[in-house]
UniProtKB/TrEMBL annotation:
CDD domains: PRX_Typ2cys (cd03015). It comes from Pseudoroseomonas cervicalis ATCC 49957. Keywords: Antioxidant, Cytoplasm, Disulfide bond, Oxidoreductase, Peroxidase, Redox-active center, Stress response. PROSITE patterns: THIOREDOXIN_2. It catalyses: N(6)-[(R)-dihydrolipoyl]-L-lysyl-[lipoyl-carrier protein] + a hydroperoxide = N(6)-[(R)-lipoyl]-L-lysyl-[lipoyl-carrier protein] + an alcohol + H2O; a hydroperoxide + NADH + H(+) = an alcohol + NAD(+) + H2O. It is an enzyme of class 1 (oxidoreductase). SUPFAM superfamilies: Thioredoxin-like (SSF52833). The lineage of its organism: Bacteria, Pseudomonadati, Pseudomonadota, Alphaproteobacteria, Acetobacterales. Transmembrane segments: none annotated. It is found in: Cytoplasm. Thiol-specific peroxidase that catalyzes the reduction of hydrogen peroxide and organic hydroperoxides to water and alcohols, respectively. Plays a role in cell protection against oxidative stress by detoxifying peroxides. Together with AhpD, DlaT and Lpd, constitutes an NADH-dependent peroxidase active against hydrogen and alkyl peroxides as well as serving as a peroxynitrite reductase, thus protecting the bacterium against reactive nitrogen intermediates and oxidative stress generated by the host immune system. Does not however seem to play a role in detoxification of isoniazid. The active site is at residue 56. This is Alkyl hydroperoxide reductase C. The keyword Disulfide bond applies.
């Protein structure tokens, strides 16, 4: 699996647009998203195993509720699974929790991005619940993976993004606005 310090793989995937434009129907709802899209922004790229399942929409909806917080931090959110853009669209239309999703749902149908990242479950052949924070230079700065049955905490992704963007040493359980660590001060106190 690719991890912190690795370059996020180049990709070009079809996606269902975020927001109301994503519900306009085939031919109008789709857009190509590549690794060059939003090149100057931080990227939150998270994967789920399958559309029309149980844990996945709870996570997707939770990321959607935090979309403005990510945007305030100059970050974009991309959700990805190996389902097609048509399946994504159908799921959005028929699931009230994700109908108004503000970010795009990318279709990694050929499993190229999931494979390049090393996040496919060895038995099920679907992506694990992987989350990556990628800096504007395309370098992975944080990676987290959960098994297929356990949902993640999107609020923790916001917290880690805040910490990464300080470019400081952040102690355990640090939250935005909290004190960072200054090694010079620590050594003087000793």
């Amino acid at each position: 699996m690719l991890t912190v310090g690795d370059k996020f793989p180049a990709f070009n995937l079809t996606a269902v647009k975020g927001g109301p434009e994503g519900l306009e129907g085939p031919g109008k709802s789709f857009v190509e998203i590549s690794s060059e899209t939003d090149a100057d922004k931080w990227k939150i790229v998270f994967f789920w195993p399958k559309d029309f399942t149980f844990v996945c929409p709870t996570e997707i909806a939770a990321f959607g509720k935090l979309n403005n917080e990510f945007a305030d931090r100059d970050a974009v959110v991309y959700g990805v699974s190996t389902d097609s853009e048509f399946v994504h669209l159908n799921w959005r239309v028929h699931n009230n929790d994700i109908r108004d999703l503000p970010f795009p749902m990318l279709a990694d149908v050929k499993r190229e991005l999931s494979t390049a990242l090393g996040i496919l479950d060895k038995n099920a052949g679907v992506p694990l619940r992987a989350t990556f924070i990628v800096d504007p230079e395309g370098t992975i700065q944080w990676a987290s993976v959960n098994g297929l049955n356990v949902g993640r905490n999107p609020q923790e992704v916001v917290r880690v993004l805040d910490a990464l963007q300080t470019d400081e040493l952040c102690p355990c359980n640090w939250n935005k606005g909290g004190d960072t660590l200054n090694p010079d001060q620590l050594f003087k106190a000793a």
